[in-house]
Amino acid sequence: MDATAQTQEVIRQNWLRVQEQVAEACEASGRNRSEVTIVGVSKYVPPEFAYQLTQAGCDQLGENRPQSLWDKYQFCEERHTAVEWHMIGHLQRNKIRRTLPMLRCIHSLDSLRLAQALSEAAVAQGSVLTAFLEVNVSEDQSKTGLPRSQLVELLEHADSLPGLQLSGLMAMSTHGASATQTRREFAAVRELRDTLNATAPSTISLTELSMGMSGDFADAIAEGATLVRIGSSLWEGIDYHHA
Ligand SMILES: *Cc1c(COP(=O)(O)O)cnc(C)c1O
């Protein structure tokens, strides 16, 4: 096998393994596998590896930087490969107009200002963007995301955001926390989602929970995750730092 074929095979095996692990986590928590979407996070690797992951069968990819998303979007477009792109990191307002048409959804809505700018751009482009509110549930002050009070405020403005379909929450657990603590944080996100859903305007239905990464997706699935964002597990055995 040449190097490319070898890489392709490693990526394929990683994708199969992650799918199996997600299926096991669903089964262990009595959930249907179809309730959980795997977003393959391609931020670590160059476009050709992201493309190979799509060829293995992963058609939902996540990026945390607009420029990298543009590059990979174009790479896959040129190869006529259908990918649904998820923005999972901070989106600067001056990059909205270019990024928006490429997106299936944004997980990292982290301010009212961004929400307003995104909504305006979506209306101007004649589209509606699915968006999840990024919540800061960890005690880690350096973590991104909105505190509870601002989540409530943003939802109160929902009527003035016609270009956005606010449909869930996104969260990250505290880095290095114990399994017990991680599980507790994910449970808190689910409870917060339920509380907000009960009080939000009737046009809003917060059905999605984007939580869980390579190290903690089983706990996230046990606590109700509907999307897991998995990166490093998919690139094990790939020499991507030198790519
Ligand atoms: C990098 C990243 C991930 C993937 O994390 P892994 O631990 O590599 O699976 C998930 N979500 C966000 C927001 C990220 O930035």
From TrEMBL:
Coiled coil: none annotated. Gene3D superfamilies: Alanine racemase. SUPFAM superfamilies: PLP-binding barrel (SSF51419). Pfam families: Ala_racemase_N. It comes from the Bacteria. Its cofactor is pyridoxal 5'-phosphate. Signal peptide: none annotated. Keywords: Pyridoxal phosphate. One of its GO terms (molecular function) is pyridoxal phosphate binding. InterPro entries: Ala_racemase_N, PLP-binding_barrel, PyrdxlP_homeostasis. The modification N6-(pyridoxal phosphate)lysine is found at K43. Residues 55-235 form the Alanine racemase N-terminal domain. PANTHER family: PROLINE SYNTHETASE CO-TRANSCRIBED BACTERIAL HOMOLOG PROTEIN (PTHR10146), PYRIDOXAL PHOSPHATE HOMEOSTASIS PROTEIN (PTHR10146:SF14). Belongs to the pyridoxal phosphate-binding protein YggS/PROSC family. NCBIfam families: YggS family pyridoxal phosphate-dependent enzyme. Pyridoxal 5'-phosphate (PLP)-binding protein, which is involved in PLP homeostasis. This is Pyridoxal phosphate homeostasis protein. It comes from Aureliella helgolandensis.
